[in-house]
Design brief:
Helix content of chain A: 55-70%
Radius of gyration of chain A: 19 Å
Mean pLDDT of chain B: 88
Number of strands of chain A: 0
Oligomer: heterodimer
Structural class of chain B: mainly alpha
Order of helices and strands of chain B: HHEEHHHHHHHHHHHHHHHHH
Low-confidence stretches of chain A: none
Strand content of chain B: under 5%
Largest sheet of chain A: none
Radius of gyration of chain B: 22 Å
Largest interface: A-B, 21 and 19 residues
Mean pLDDT of chain A: 85
Low-confidence stretches of chain B: none
Strand order of the largest sheet of chain B: 1-2
Distance between the termini of chain B: 23 Å
Chain lengths: ~160, ~525
């Protein structure tokens, strides 16, 4: 896939940071608002797919290393299980929420009643959302990239 | 509390967690070194096997064990995911463990020359994880999740030899059939949840009232799980997938198929256990109706499987059809067990069916390993292209003889032990069933004698003058299965008393399964 016109590229330049911010927001606020690691990751990955469409897979391939992306994907998966196993270590059950109510990271107990959302709550949930987010971003982006690459192989030959 | 108690208490979660962690670490480990990757895979399985072992010894001694995810005890609004391990689950987990071990040892040499092995091992570990999950879970939605994981992982593995077009076709067929099936399961689970506000198998079984919706749910679950197990009207994916996947993978897919069979047992005996004696129209009890439907399908499976195997010329596809026959025998046994629920021979039939689970996995597995070895050395799939291999592949030939005699149910081997239990008990329900089963067993022998002559006997072809014996790790894997087959054949009582009887009792005693959860609130 080769790049598209200057108008598209400029629009993507403007839209890309906004998409990133929105996606990361959805990941980070997964324990408070609708969405979470998977949904936010899909948003970020679709932002990356936008780059692939606008600039062409050939250009994107030059910029990034797809091996590193698959490493990130593994790290996301390993992080998820590690947090679950830490629950086993610190609260004696697998997936135990050992951070909730501990006043450490994300450890505040949320106030009851109609209060504003407190970001510093949820225990291990935000950590798991981050792990899933990393996995989904890397995984989906690598899928899009490989598909774009495969469909452009013929184009490269000519 | 000493360390072993803690480990046993945590083992249901760790049996899932360790292969899953291994699967995600695999791409990172593979970057270092391929030998390290193989050792890492085996290490992960050894650790899992250790936990399966200690959990098995505990469950067989002390009864069902409960594991609650994310909390120390069951809170009153039961939203927790539970793992409930009884003797039947642990029996299945042991089978999966054995198959996974052997498949991994076999993969060492068999897959050596392929690339993309980091993905291969990741998917294999994911498939093993999902199989364990289906077998140990006590939550029906969780069962669906693991069913989906196993669909996707098996599909990718079936298509692993993607350069052969047929592999892609088989994988596509598999994913279409099983994705639609999984949606049916989800629909059934949704109806259960809408009616009873619970997803827990034990809780659901306790409150199930057998309404009109429950009838639909039973049909949906049986159809889909029967399809995933390879029962006849929906068996068409099975020979394709078994025949086209790399044989090392086929072994693990057999494990996943058996997990679906376990799902059938769980649905009938536990989920619908309380209502099995409900009388239907024309005063037929539910168990007789379900039992005879399963028996009919099983007999058709047996006949179709063996008849289709007779005409195949592709070695692995032929074994795939004989796998359909073996699935038929298992369904025949449990169908008889359900139809005659309460009589002594029903228990025998159930035990025969459960023992046949293990024997089918070993025998069909062994045949696939042999077919893989033949493919590895000759690169030929068709029976027409191979001849006289016994001259150069002595050990493989011996293992093939053991494998086909076991599948055909010849006396000194394991197939005989379970098939005899099945013939004996089914005969008391209806002699014709038993006669058909025995006749098809003899036909099966005929099928494999043909294969034996086509592949291993006969004149030596010039192209195969220099073929060598299969590599050592493949021989080791085949030898292990053959040794197990002979051992179970010589001492079936040991296995029946230690594993099969507790498993059959656990299925029949659904009150205990329910009481472990519902009594615990």
């Amino acid at each position: 896939m080769s790049g598209m016109s200057k108008i598209v590229k400029t629009s993507v330049n403007i839209l890309f940071p906004l998409t990133m911010i929105f996606g990361l927001y959805v990941i980070a606020h997964g324990h408070l608002t609708p969405g979470g690691g998977f949904q936010g990751g899909a948003i970020v990955a679709s932002g990356c797919a936008m780059i692939v469409v606008a600039y062409g897979s050939k250009w994107v391939f030059k910029q990034i290393n797809e091996k590193r992306l698959s490493t990130f994907e593994s790290i996301g998966g390993v992080g998820f299980i590690t947090v679950a196993l830490l629950g086993l270590v610190f609260s004696t059950v697998f997936f135990g929420n050992f951070l909730a109510g501990s006043n450490l990271l994300f450890g505040t107990t949320p106030a009851t009643g109609s209060t504003g959302a407190d970001f510093n709550t949820g225990g291990v949930l935000p950590l798991m959302n981050f792990a899933v987010g990393v996995k989904v971003i890397a995984g989906l982006f690598v899928i899009v990239l490989v598909m774009a690459y495969a469909s452009s192989v013929k184009e490269w030959d000519t | 509390m000493n360390i072993i108690d803690v480990l046993i208490e945590q083992s249901p979660a760790l049996i899932i967690a360790i292969p899953l962690l291994g699967a995600f670490l695999m791409p990172l480990v593979s970057r270092i070194n391929s030998t390290l990757r193989n050792i890492f895979g085996l290490l992960v399985l050894c650790l899992t096997g250790f936990f399966v072992g200690i959990l098995a010894s505990d469950v067989l001694a002390n009864g069902p064990r409960l594991y609650i995810f994310g909390a120390k005890d069951l809170a009153v609004p039961m939203v927790r995911i539970l793992f409930e391990v009884d003797s039947m689950s642990i029996f299945m987990a042991l089978i999966t463990m054995v198959l996974a071990f052997i498949a991994l040892i076999y993969s060492w040499s068999f897959m050596k020359d392929h690339d993309g092995l980091d993905k291969y091992y990741t998917l294999v570990l994911l498939l093993i994880t999902s199989t364990f999950g289906m077998e140990l879970t006590g939550d029906i939605f969780n069962f669906f999740v693991f069913l989906e994981i196993s669909c996707i992982a098996s599909c990718a593995l079936i298509a692993f030899w993607i350069s052969e077009g047929e592999a892609l076709e088989a994988a596509f067929k598999y994913i279409v059939v099983s994705a639609i099936g999984a949606l049916f399961v989800l629909f059934a689970i949704g109806m259960l949840y809408a009616q009873y506000n619970a997803l827990n198998i034990a809780t659901l079984a306790n409150v199930l009232k057998y309404t009109f919706l429950d009838k639909i749910i039973l049909v949906l679950l049986l159809v889909v799980l029967g399809m995933k197990a390879g029962l006849v009207p929906m068996h068409m994916w099975l020979p394709d997938s078994y025949g086209r996947a790399p044989p090392s993978v086929t072994l693990i897919i057999i494990g996943a198929t058996l997990a679906s069979f376990y799902g059938v047992l769980r649905v009938i005996f536990t989920l619908y256990g309380n209502v099995l004696s409900t009388t239907m129209r024309f005063s037929i009890p539910l168990n007789v109706l379900v039992g005879w439907i399963l028996i009919t399908l099983a007999i058709i499976s047996i006949i179709v499987g063996v008849a289709m195997a007779l005409v195949q010329s592709d070695f692995m596809r032929l074994i795939g059809f004989s796998a359909v026959t073996e699935v038929g025998y298992m369904f025949l046994a449990i169908g008889a067990g359900i139809a005659a629920l309460g009589t002594p021979y029903a228990t025998t039939a159930l035990q025969g069916g459960i023992l046949h689970l293990l024997n089918d996995a070993l025998d069909i597995g062994l045949l696939f390993l042999v077919a893989g070895a033949v493919y590895y050395t000759t690169k030929k799939r068709s029976l027409d292209d191979t001849s006289g291999l016994a001259r150069n592949m002595k050990y493989t030939t011996v293992f093939f003889v053991i494998g086909f005699l076991a599948v055909a149910g010849m006396p000194p081997l394991n197939g005989f032990a379970s098939k005899f239990l099945i013939y004996e008990s089914v005969y008391q329900l209806n002699p014709i069933l038993s006669i058909v089963a025995i006749l098809c067993s003899i036909l099966m022998l005929a099928v494999f004698v043909k294969v034996f002559y086509a592949v291993f006997m006969g004149p030596e072809l010039p192209a195969f003058k220099n073929v060598t014996e299969a590599p050592r790790s493949m021989l080791l894997a085949m030898g292990l299965v053959a040794a197990l087959a002979i051992f179970i054949g010589l001492f079936p009582n040991l296995v029946i008393d230690a594993l099969v009887k507790p498993a059959a009792d656990a299925l029949l005693n659904h009150a205990q399964y329910i009481g472990t959860v519902v009594g615990g609130i």
